[in-house]
């Protein structure tokens, strides 16, 4: 069986009637990740309850080698790789005008979770390749909304073997096609990074379920 890479984008919310994250993921899916990867993609609604149900289900059902979540940030001008996810502080209402009762992702969970992927390293590698003028930067604050919430949930369920990528709104300044191509390069670089770390024996990549 081919290793599965699962990539999600988000549906509409607020001013983002067309969410650049899902459009970018669809463009990336058209390009694919090569014959050695079973690529799966899914659109997530901007709803805490749906994310809390869907993300653990994906981990349990598919046991992906890597899960990558993509979200849009109206503040972003570059593609941004998030290193850290936060457990608490979720007070902003979702599209159903709801938020978690506890304002947390996982009750009694760690305050933060850090991806196994070194995002600074990934950025350096990607920026040395041809990405059509789309610089990639690292961040340590995913924003305490559905992006951060989905990331923490995924890191918790997938033994920190997950990633989150923020993209700017469409055409501000990058087209969907350019974003899709950049996503492909980033994810392929992440897979190479994980392969190297596994060969070195320095990354615990067993997919233990914590959900």
From TrEMBL:
Molecular function as annotated in GO: pyroglutamyl-peptidase activity
Alphabetical list of InterPro entries matching this protein: Peptidase_C15 (IPR000816), Peptidase_C15-like (IPR016125), Peptidase_C15-like_sf (IPR036440)
Cellular component, GO annotation: cytosol
Keywords: Cytoplasm, Hydrolase, Protease, Thiol protease
A Pfam family assignment: Peptidase_C15
UniProt keyword annotation of Cytoplasm present: yes
Record has Protease as a keyword: yes
GO biological process entries: proteolysis
Family: Belongs to the peptidase C15 family.
Listed name of the protein: Pyroglutamyl-peptidase 1-like
Lineage: Eukaryota, Metazoa, Chordata, Cephalochordata, Leptocardii
